[in-house]
């Protein structure tokens, strides 16, 4: 590429350190320039190995970049990403894209109004195996229903077990967007939450969806299950039989690199539309909102 995209990172937690920072720094089309954190010491610690600059002033940080990747809690992202988009910066958003539906709507309006590129880090969606599976399902068509499950012990111990927003939002907020996105992509747009139940002690969610073409799907999610390694699986069934995708070989690094490739292609082609752009994030936020409402 003739010119690298100046890109900054907001956040310095485990996911920022493991995925965002090293892969932004490693991508040939990106110049990883800056880190913004509330505590400047944390930002300096993350930025130093990559010769990036650390800032605790967000406006000053924005002046150094053309694009921003976020790795912060949803309510923080909702506020700061809106400011970044309004300033004309392209954005890479974590899921859920905001702390509330209202905040997500404001963010989506800001991104669309500014005409900037946006992608949501729906990691599994960018795996080559997932794209091949979805393409095969799309060619066959006429699926009656499907199911998804994701069980892990991530909140019982490990790098993310001290994450306050994950404990607060639980599996619905952290895992839900991934699995709902895949069910939606496989079976057609989710138009209705038919049922939802939450077992608080195990953070176990059971959800039933209705899709635009008449298919019905279910999802079961928990981050408090003593399951190692993480188990995730999605399947569809109908007149063409049964097709399943589970724990594929693509790593988080593989998926994030593919996301960055798409992000740069959007910017260099001047498009702001993508299957995983901010509008997708808003659709998923609406589903999260409705699921919580149905489970009350």
Topology:
Elements: E1 5-10, H1 14-26, E2 30-36, H2 40-47, E3 53-55, H3 58-62, E4 67-70, H4 74-86, E5 90-93, H5 101-114, E6 118-120, H6 128-140, E7 143-151, H7 164-174, H8 176-187, E8 190-199, E9 204-211, E10 216-222, E11 231-238, E12 241-246, H9 252-269, H10 278-295
Parallel strand pairs: 1-2, 1-4, 2-3, 4-5, 5-6, 7-10
Antiparallel strand pairs: 7-11, 8-9, 9-10, 11-12
Helix pairs in contact: 1-9, 4-5, 5-10, 8-10
Question: What does this entry look like structurally?
Answer:
One of its GO terms (molecular function) is nucleotide binding. Residues 162-241 form the GFO/IDH/MocA-like oxidoreductase domain. Residues 5-117 form the Gfo/Idh/MocA-like oxidoreductase N-terminal domain. The chain has 296 residues and is α/β, with parallel strands linked by helices. The protein folds into 2 domains: 5-123 and 253-277, 3-Layer(aba) Sandwich (Rossmann fold); 128-247, Dihydrodipicolinate Reductase, domain 2 (2-Layer Sandwich). Helix content is 42%, strand content 25%. The chain contains 10 helices and 12 strands. The strands form 2 sheets. It has a 6-stranded parallel β-sheet with strand order 3-2-1-4-5-6, with helices on both faces. It is globular and about 55 Å long. The mean pLDDT is 95.
